[in-house]
Design a protein that fits this description.
The structure holds 2 protein chains of 2 kinds.
Chain A (H helix, E strand, L loop, with lengths): L4 E7 L3 E2 L11 H14 L10 E5 L11 H8 L7 E5 L5 H15 L4 E9 L11 H4 L1 H6 L5 H12 L3 H20 L10 E2 L5 E3 L11 H5 L6 H5 L4 H8 L19 E10 L1 H7 L5 E10 L8 H13 L8 E4 L4 H11 L12 H4 L6 H16 L3 E8 L3 E9 L2
Parallel strand pairs in A: 3-4, 3-5, 10-11
Antiparallel strand pairs in A: 1-8, 1-9, 2-8, 5-8, 6-7, 9-12, 11-12
Chain B lengths: L5 E5 L4 E6 L11 H16 L5 E6 L11 H5 L6 H20 L4 H6 L7 E5 L3 E2 L1 H8 L2 E5 L6 E2 L13 H20 L5 H7 L4 E3 L4 H11 L23 H18 L4 H13 L4 H17 L1 H18 L15 E5 L3 H12 L3 E5 L3 H20 L5 H9 L1 E4 L10 E4 L5 H12 L7 E4 L6 H5 L8 E5 L9 E6 L5 H14 L2 E4 L8 H17 L4 H11 L5 H8 L1 H15 L9 H10 L12 E3 L5 E4 L3 H4 L9 H21 L6 H12 L8 H8 L1 H15 L7 H8 L4 H5 L1
Parallel strand pairs in B: 2-3, 3-4, 4-6, 5-7, 6-8, 9-10, 9-12, 10-11, 12-13, 13-14, 15-16
Antiparallel strand pairs in B: 1-2, 14-15, 17-18
Classes of the chains: A alpha+beta, B alpha/beta.
Chain lengths: 404, 731
């Protein structure tokens, strides 16, 4: 099969996903199109070479609706010949979109394609698209629906992660993100976002709090205790599904969960020949890709199974991976992944993650794929595995190998 | 045209007054005859131009209409799903025709056509199909009596309101109010119903018909709100309405956790509300009927109707009462013993409209019963559930005493003194010395055989066992135990007394533990065995709750106290001597009660830790030091199966030994005695549902793996071989 190579990765900084966030005035189309224009322009392309664009978006309604990818392509000034698709695999959307672009390349459908994602959470709030899963009684009851925060607390309870454990993880994430920015480790990928008069409105991840310590986190009240124990009492449902648990230990709060932000990212993927034809220098090879489904109530344990599947597909084992990147949806998700895979904390999320910098749902997967690629180049290491936990119990993973 | 199930009078204004009055029935219900005739009337009404409108009311003092005839529903037969649907849809179609006047929804919403007005004059309770009839009328007025119940209790017997109730209710009062009403099966009083918008007006009884007619006269052309073009769902509906989304996320979760996902009807009601609220009205009604068809064809509704409605009512009406004995009039009851049981018995007896003389060794002890009721009554008064006068009148009916002479004019004695044969013998003798010669003496013993106690009586034919459960005012079951010499009059008196206190009675044989206390200990024992095997206590508790038990067995053991279990075990050992059969939990009880002093909640600790106020904190972590957790835990299904089958086997054993003489009594006793999963219809219904052969096979398998306590009784194996069923076999 044809090999797929990553030629470039670009991302916006992440703005606070609130009305006072720096990116709130930027429309989702504008945000996505600035990223699309950048990945075209900095690689000396006209846009015509890019045959298809797959963008993740988790709330594809309102101004993110109607296949936002296509509208963003046109807004970015691409020729009308470039097609676009909007992908939704919840939090894994951005990585899945990159995988779709890579699959199109590998299968021979495209020579050059773009994967990525967009989520303007300040403008189209999470959950805007509704969905049958929690509200249709037949689905909610059969699947023991509980919100993600309860699932994250269930993971902490079931695997014994204390409040101190998850808080300590969060403090480290902030510290690493702070160091990465101080050392300009994201410089190659970051695209400052401009307003309509061309002024930069944001050039850094807005959410970070590098000074966070155990004491400041300790002051935060658990975020999911109320809905878990009182109205409507999701804890009981978690326990019905996991009956060896007596009581849910509510450890997560805003400080050890991923932040709500606006952001967009794009990854340029193509064949070896396409790279040669357009004078592009390959940065990494896509080694393998995988998606899995896992038990939907605990929901967020999918990464370990997705990672194992991607490793098996590549004929690799855990030791063959130099750098790990797992989206920091909640601290317990990463702690569980490290324990299940027996990975040292020093080898995973080395430049921080969504707890410090935020998680723009549809874009995150593509963002952290770029982040881990930058890290391979910075550290001179060779292989990386990127994965995300996904709503309703799924996982997506991608293994890449640096090629120069 | 004339009808048998209702009368129709047309007044000078052309308004028909339809008065439903089923012949030979104390209460109106939807039965085959009423449906058939009502359909004819609707046809006539919609086509007869001489009739301008109608008022529907009831000719019964007992109320408006109490729902569908459940015996008709339970016996419904259909050869295909299509036929079953058509049967289920009949009432919906009929009510819809009355509502639309036979016009199409499309024409109604265009405003070109309308229906003739129908008002419902609710003269009393309207339940289930009765309320649904009212909801299909264009106007509802109810008399201003706060005790009138307007509700849809179908969920209690595993069904849903299938006459448009799941569709019209939310369109009138919003999804949230409708969900509360239909899922919990709780009735509204007229004032609440008006405040929520379920009825239009509340008027004095004398004005009822005139008020309804006036409305009809004033509104010659009507269209139901949901047939109007500008209809807006109150409170919102639909998968994109944030209010409805939030509501369903919460409702699903609450219903799921409360029902443990065990009740098909609750799920079906939720789906009717969710799906129906998104659909056009006529389609929504069809969807409701489809869910209704599913429930009616499943085992849960059949089992629940049989046990929780038909057999429960039969038992409460005195199905087990000896025929031909004249009613035993009971106005005053002597209760011996002011302890926990005596106090509870005193309370329910007064609540049942009788006077009580409660006797104990000292006036102080007797007064404990007074204080017990005082506490309950004060609470009711402070919450506005009872007037102060009614509370005072209630308390005035209780006379505490330490003097046996005060018992001389009682109509019944119930003793609830200490469970020691010598103490019982003493009070029997002293009471019989003063009471009338034909006054029945009932013993509320839970452990001592009645025949043995009756030996202390000078008239054993008037001696009977009445086994109450604690707390008496809350527990619905009463075991009636005839001893070897108990006569019909004593048994009749027991039933006549029960009819006043309104418990669910079953007659059980005079054996140690009677019925419920034969089954309950093995169930508790199995939970303890699981603990000693190193199964996580949380898994045991959650498995029982998943089965549908109201509380985990370990928490329950803490409530009843391990001390009590230990005491019963010690006394049984002592009494039986060499004949004592070890249950296998002796060492465990010894450890908990004697060595560790973890004797139950009342003592501050047991399987759980408790705070100073007795609030349950969490499972005691130290258990693992005595019984280390097994490295490999059983699946929750396996734990559930053991906890279920230990109850099934013990119940089956009682049935085989005639402790309960029919499956009906066994099922009622199990559900109302120890909270056996009600959605099953009881252990006997459960066994019939899975099939006797399946039951025997599973029991054999469990016996092989976990011990002979799971071996199925011989007679059950024989019935299985013959392909019999318990309920038919007994019929």
């Amino acid at each position: 099969m044809t090999e797929a190579y990553i030629y470039d990765a670009v991302r916006s900084p992440r703005g606070k996903g609130r009305p006072d966030g720096a990116l709130h005035e930027i429309t989702p189309i504008d945000l996505a199109s600035q990223v699309l224009a950048a990945i075209r322009d900095r690689n000396g392309l006209s846009g015509e070479e890019i045959e298809d664009v797959a963008f993740g978006c988790v709330s594809p309604v309102g101004e993110q609706g109607a296949v936002i990818t296509r509208t963003a392509i046109l807004a970015a000034g691409y020729p009308h010949t470039t097609s676009g698709i909007q992908v939704n695999r919840f939090c894994g959307s951005g990585l899945e979109a990159s995988n779709i672009a890579a699959a199109k390349v590998k299968s021979g459908e495209c020579d050059l394609a773009v994967g990525g994602g967009i989520e303007s959470m300040s403008r189209v709030p999470m959950g805007s698209d509704g969905g049958a899963w929690p509200i249709d009684p037949r689905s909610a009851i059969a699947n023991y629906f509980i919100p993600q925060g309860i699932s994250a607390d269930l993971i902490a309870t079931k695997y014994g992660y204390s409040r101190d454990d998850v808080d300590a993880y969060a403090v480290e994430s902030q510290k690493r993100a702070g160091r990465a920015w101080a050392e300009k480790r994201f410089a190659r990928s970051i695209l400052p976002i401009k307003d309509v008069i061309g002024e930069v409105v944001l050039d850094h991840d807005e959410l970070m709090r590098p000074q966070t310590d155990m004491q400041s986190l300790g002051a935060l009240a658990p975020a999911f205790q109320m809905m878990g124990t009182m109205m409507p009492g999701f804890d009981d449902i978690a326990i019905m599904r996991y009956p060896d648990v007596e009581k849910i230990n509510h450890v997560h709060h805003a400080g050890n969960s991923s932040g709500i932000v606006d952001g967009s990212a794009a990854v340029l993927i193509g064949t070896k020949e396409a790279g040669e034809k357009y004078g592009l220098k390959a940065r990494a090879r896509i080694v393998s890709m995988a998606s899995i489904g896992s038990e939907p109530a605990i929901m967020l344990t999918g990464p370990e199974f997705a990672a194992q599947k991607a490793l098996a597909r590549a004929g690799m084992n855990k030791g063959d991976i130099d750098v790990w990147e797992l989206n920091e949806a909640f601290a317990s998700v990463v702690l569980r992944f490290m324990e299940a895979m027996n990975i040292d904390h020093s080898d995973i999320n080395v430049n921080g993650g969504a707890i410090a910098m935020g998680h723009p749902l549809g874009a995150t997967g593509a963002m952290i794929l770029g982040t881990v690629l930058d890290e391979l180049e910075r550290s001179g290491k060779s292989t990386a595995l990127t994965t995300l936990c996904i709503g309703a119990g799924m996982g997506t993973a991608t293994i890449i190998e640096r090629v120069n | 045209m004339t009808y048998k199930t209702f009368s129709v009078e047309i007044d000078a204004d052309g308004i028909a007054l339809l008065t439903i009055d089923l012949p030979d029935a104390s209460m109106n219900v939807w039965n085959g005859a009423l449906i058939e005739e009502f359909a004819k009337w609707v046809d006539d009404f919609t086509t007869n131009d001489a009739v301008k409108g109608a008022v529907i009311t009831s000719g019964k003092k007992s109320g408006f209409l109490a729902g569908a005839d459940l015996t008709m529903l339970g016996g419904a037969k259909a050869n295909s799903t299509k036929e079953a649907f058509d049967q289920a849809f009949a009432l919906n179609a009929l009510l819809r025709k009355m509502e639309t006047g036979g016009q199409s929804a499309k024409d109604l919403s265009s405003g070109k056509v309308s229906a003739k007005p129908v008002a419902c004059a609710l003269n009393g309770l309207a339940l289930g199909g009765g309320l649904e009839l009212a909801l299909a009328c264009h106007y509802r007025v109810v008399i201003d009596h706060p005790k009138i119940q307007l509700g849809m209790p179908e969920v209690m017997v595993g069904l849903l309101p299938g006459g448009g109730g799941t569709q019209r209710t939310p369109r009138l009062i919003g999804l949230q109010n409708a969900a509360m009403m239909i899922i919990q099966g709780k009735a509204l009083d007229p004032a609440t119903a008006k405040a929520q918008g379920l009825v239009h007006d509340v008027v004095p009884a004398a004005d009822l018909i005139a008020h309804a007619k006036a409305w009809v006269k004033a509104n010659p052309k009507v269209t139901a709100p949901w047939d109007k073009k500008d209809f807006k769902f109150p409170g919102g509906a639909g998968a994109m309405d944030p209010r409805a989304v939030q509501l369903f996320v919460g409702l699903n979760a609450m219903a799921h956790k409360e029902s443990k996902g065990n009740f098909d009807a609750i799920k079906a009601i939720l789906s009717c509300l969710y799906e129906g609220s998104i659909l056009p009205f006529d389609t929504a009604l069809r969807v409701e009927s489809k869910y209704f068809t599913k429930l009616l064809s499943g085992s849960q509704a059949k089992n629940m109707i049989r046990t929780l409605f038909i057999n429960k009512q039969a038992a409460e009406k005195g199905a087990g009462r000896p025929a031909g004995v004249p009613p035993v009039e009971i106005k005053k009851v002597g209760v011996l013993g002011g302890g926990l049981m005596g106090s509870g018995i005193t309370h329910v007896t007064v609540k049942g409209g009788m006077d009580v003389v409660v006797l104990d060794r000292s006036l102080e002890d007797a007064n404990k019963a007074v204080n017990y009721s005082r506490k309950i009554i004060d609470k009711a008064v402070s919450r506005g559930k009872m007037t102060k006068e009614a509370g005072d009148a209630f308390m005035a009916r209780i006379t505490p005493t330490d003097n046996y002479d005060d018992l001389k004019d009682v109509d019944l004695i119930i003793e609830a003194v200490f469970e020691r044969p010598d103490v019982k013998a003493d009070v029997i003798k002293k009471a019989e010395a003063v009471i009338g010669p034909d006054v029945v003496f009932a013993s509320n013993t839970s452990t001592l055989p009645i025949t043995g106690l009756a030996k202390n009586s000078s008239r054993p034919e008037l001696f009977v066992g009445l086994h109450f459960f604690s707390p008496v005012e809350k527990m619905p079951l009463l075991e009636i135990i005839p001893g070897a010499l108990t006569g019909d009059r004593a048994l009749a008196a027991a039933f006549d007394y029960n009819a006043k206190i309104k418990k669910t009675p079953i007659v059980v044989k005079d054996v140690r533990g009677f019925f419920t206390n034969r089954v309950f200990p093995p169930y508790m024992g199995e939970a303890m065995k699981l603990v000693t095997e190193g199964v996580k206590p949380a898994l045991i508790e959650n498995a029982a709750k998943a089965l549908g038990m109201p509380i985990g067995p370990l928490a329950l053991l803490d409530e009843t106290t391990l001390q009590l279990g230990y005491d019963v075990m010690q006394s049984t050992k002592k009494e039986l001597g060499d004949a004592y059969q070890p249950s296998g939990t002796e060492d465990f009880m010894e450890l908990m009660v004697v060595t560790l002093g973890r004797k139950g909640r009342r003592f501050g600790s047991g399987f759980y830790d408790y705070d100073a106020k007795g609030e349950r904190l969490s499972l005691w972590q130290g258990m693992a030091q005595h019984y280390p957790l097994a490295a490999e835990q059983p699946s929750v299904e396996e734990v559930k199966q053991r906890l279920l089958y230990i109850q099934l086997i013990a119940t089956a054993q009682c049935f085989e030994e005639d402790v309960v003489k029919d499956p009906q009594s066994a099922d009622l006793g199990a559900i109302f005695g120890w909270g056996f999963a009600p959605y099953t219809g009881g252990p006997m219904s459960y066994i019939d549902t899975v099939g006797l052969e399946n039951f025997v096979r599973t029991a054999d398998n469990l016996a092989q793996r976990f011990g002979s306590r799971f071996a199925p009784p011989k007679s059950f194996r024989e019935m299985a071989d013959k392909g019999e069923t318990l309920y038919k076999a007994a019929a």
